[in-house]
Amino acid sequence: MREEEKKPTSTIRRILKQRWALSAIYIASAAIILAAAFLLQNSFDDSAKDGKEESAETGKNYDQPSVEVNSNLETIKMPVADADKSVIKKQFYDVNADEKAQEEALVFYNNRYEQNKGIDIAMEDGKSFDVKASLSGNVTKVQDDALLGNLVEVEHEDGVVTRYQSVKDIKVAVGDKVKQGQAIATAGKSQINEEAGVHVHFEIRKDNIALNPLDFVDKQASAIQSATEAKGSELEDSANKEETPAVEGSEADKEETPAVEESETGTEEAPAVDETDESTDLESGTDEEGSIPGEDTTEESDSLKDSLNQSN
To answer: Taking the model in full, what pTM does it have?
Structure first.
């Protein structure tokens, strides 16, 4: 029994004593480890691909920058830190306002009156203040202008532009992205509106058309697009209404045309009737007139004959 138990151990020992035994064991172990690592790597790659595909499908409709998307959803703010302490020195010139409001919205400079295209905002104490971005957007213009008091323009979505005039100590440059509420300059003075003192001239424009900023403060920027579309439809309706009478007039002219032709034919017939009447009248007149002279000549000839007979 002891000899039979020792046979397997002696066989393993004999194999291990061979020169190639250890090398074979190392190679086999390495192959097993590499195979396990390869399988694990493939499993990780598959999970990563699935994650990328899901993220691509989830975000395929979000190509626009976050700043531009959010700016259209922002609520338009006054370009000051504390709107409750601000005053409006000059209102926007509204063509639909009454005569007095329109006169107050005129800017007088160099013996000329100009319509105010925005609102002039100042502080109650008359001191300088930081001018804030009303909406998030991209700075498209920075201009030094003594007459207007320097200028900063910020472009937004759908052709909307906010303009800040009469400012100094400008803190932004062309190409900068600004966020709503960010300080872009300091209020200053301008030559065109000296009576306003230290102020900022604030404008909102849509497709380069000035709008009244007070109509859109505390409203979303998308309200500008809706308002301009509504105004555009009203203008189209008014234009169509103005064109309608012209069309009706032309139809009326066409309907009246036969009447004119009838009147023309009537005028042609009328002279014929008048001529015949006049001719008959003339004929009758000549007959009457002719008969009168004839009768007079006969009477005169008879009287002459009688006088001659008496003389004889």
So the answer is: 0.55
